[in-house]
Amino acid sequence: MSSQVMEKTESNVAVEDSLRDLPLSNSYETAMEALSSLITRQKRGTPSSVGGKYGKFDRMQMYLKILNLEEHIPELKIIHVAGTKGKGSTCAFCEAILRECGFRTGLFTSPHLIDVRERFRIDGFDISEDKFLLHFWDCWNQLKEHVSDDLPMPPLFQFLTVLAFKIFVCEKVDVAIIEVGLGGKRDSTNVIKEPVVCGITPLGMDHTEVLGNTLGCIASHKAGIFKPQVPAFTVHQLSEAMDVLHEKAHELAVPLKVVEPLDHKKLEGSKLSLSGDHQFTNAALAVSLCKCWLQRTGNWEKIFQNDNPESNMPEAFLRGLTTAHLYGRAQVVHDSSSNCHFGSAPADNSSGDLIFYLDGAHSPESMEVCAKWFSSAVQESKQLPNLSSSSHDVESMKEVWGNGYIQSERGNTNESNKISKKILLFNCMEVRDPQILLPQLVSTCASSGTYFSKAIFVPSISTYNKVTSGTSAIPSGISNQDLSWQFSLQRLWEKIIHGIEGDVVLDESSKLDSAETLPPREFLYEDASRCSPADGNLACSSVISSLPLTIKWLRDCVRENPTLRIRVLVTGSLHLVGDVLKLLKR
After folding, report:
1. Hey, which residues does 354 pair with through a beta bridge?
2. Distance between CA atoms of 183 and 203, rounded to whole angstroms?
3. Which residue in 90, 293, 116, 82 sits closest to 188, CA to CA?
4. Cβ neighbours for 580, distance < 8 A, ≥ 6 positions apart
5. 126-166 confidence digits (pLDDT tens)
6. pLDDT band, very low/low/confident/very high, at 403 (cuts 50, 70, 90)
């Protein structure tokens, strides 16, 4: 490793000195403001405006050269992963498997949900604030010194990609698992010229405004990460996508293998740490990628000696598959705050249960997967012990924040006394098509016998033009907020629930455009059969102007009724999922 890269430069020392003079949180917020200045468009779907005379990849190469990273990227021994669904999960499984095999791992994923440091994991943990700041300001200052009219500062994702390479080189990782941001061929991560192995997860219709409106076009973009003669793996795809993948692989002499979903018997009684049947596909892809990586880097024989890679699953692989974690994808969080009582000791079962099921699904395919997972999760949870909180919950936050189900040793309440309500908490970006997403969610849940009591539509807190941290201030509400998108989602929901076909316009005199700040408590218990949009009586849905107020309202509802169990599915947007997680952590 070059001493130029590894030694602390004068710039590094200056950054460290300045950090000592500043409270860490203040310096971190300053870094967030600096990152926010790199956002070049105000919302998804609008073109990015980057000046200068160079193209995207020319700029990326120049940024890497400025930071003296060009020659070191091959040393990261990269696993490069593209796809529509399951990229993050597949990368998380790869990271956990290779870490359990004894390697120092680096993982770069996107987007982040609560804090930008989630994008950069070292040995399974988000990079620490002090290390992040050290590498961030070093990158920032060096690039700032070289900006010109021809070479401006990189846009946000390009900067974060360059920063990932910088972090992984300086932290001397043995392997870097890199998730593509969007597409593949034109993605900033595709400056990787010599990966060890590439993976393509399940493909579907998403980001069509950028990648094209056919599966073939999308597959062509994803296959853009293939490199000549570098092995690649994918899973079963629709023929339109698979034909394109095979064609691109043939052009580059890429040995492309199609992986079958993982046989649960290979887990030897253990369970995947990421929930949902679809994870057997992601896990199988990760296993193939890791085996190939170990073989191509000469590590398989060192670790597993003469074991046949096609034989039984190595113990380290099993540990990785059963411990990998990823926020906001099929994640279950039992909210213990709803059971907090001040001024007196809490009595057992003095409050109801509030359980959040979080999945950032935002494409038709991922929404179907999300619906199947939620239906399965709420049905399985009927068999679990009571989840009422105690001081034990506060001490078990590690367990609470992991993927999977949270089990308590307490379970003496008669479950038949519980009033169970399933609530949908939904928002999606305006570039998405809710006329596909919401019907997909409702019909898939219904096919499994799962029905929502109510739906709540709420704007996200996060904005597309600002990077925030886990400690950034959260507004309790935004005055004069435009809720027209949430009302359009509510109208669509009411039409779906009541089977209204076509372009029927609901009575404008209804309460659809006059959302109260908070619905009355009775809203939870109203019989949906009494719901009549034409009469302005909406018992099926509500628009609430503030997410923090929504969470508070749900918590108040279960505090006031010990027999109430509310299961909230949060979906439609990773921004929304991240905002809810941020609120629940406080």
Report:
1. 566
2. 10
3. 82
4. 356, 358, 425, 547, 551, 570
5. 999 999 999 999 999 999 999 999 999 999 999 999 999 99
6. very low
